[in-house]
Design a protein that fits this description.
170 residues; alpha+beta; Lipocalin; 2 domains; 8-stranded antiparallel beta barrel; 9 strands
Length: 170
Amino acid sequence: MSFFEWLLGGSGVPPTPRKLLHGRHPLYPKILKISNSLITDEVSAAEQKASNTPPLQKPFNVSGIAPILGPFGPAGTVTVLPQIRMICVAGGLGASEGRTVSGGPLVAGNLENSKAITEGLSVSGGLQFTPALGVQGTGNLSGGLLGPTVGIPGSSVAVTYGRMDLPKSS
């Protein structure tokens, strides 16, 4: 790169802004003498709300497959959505190797859109390494959700269709 390209901003990729590399200094609001709530950032309100959700208010998922034709068989999922007081029941077809039942909270992904993700057509899967250590995921065109599980060691994948027609009693 020549001196003039460097000086005038040649055809290369522009440098990453300092804020994206290092974040905002914690004293920034005190130096400017303004409220921290008045300073904008690049985190959406949905991401902030999802990250601040108490653990018992996050969606909870229990899934199972009855392998009646070798590893293949009917699959079922029940997802509790405490924030909207609803339960989604889904049924479909799946395949499993060793794992037939597992459950756990859905703690990552598009949690604000969990109703649209769990109802309708979705694809889910899980890996259970030990009875106390596993991971699950479910998703569709509305987004995806992930979380830890407890259950029977093995793996599974399923395609299900869910409905929100059972309100959770308070």
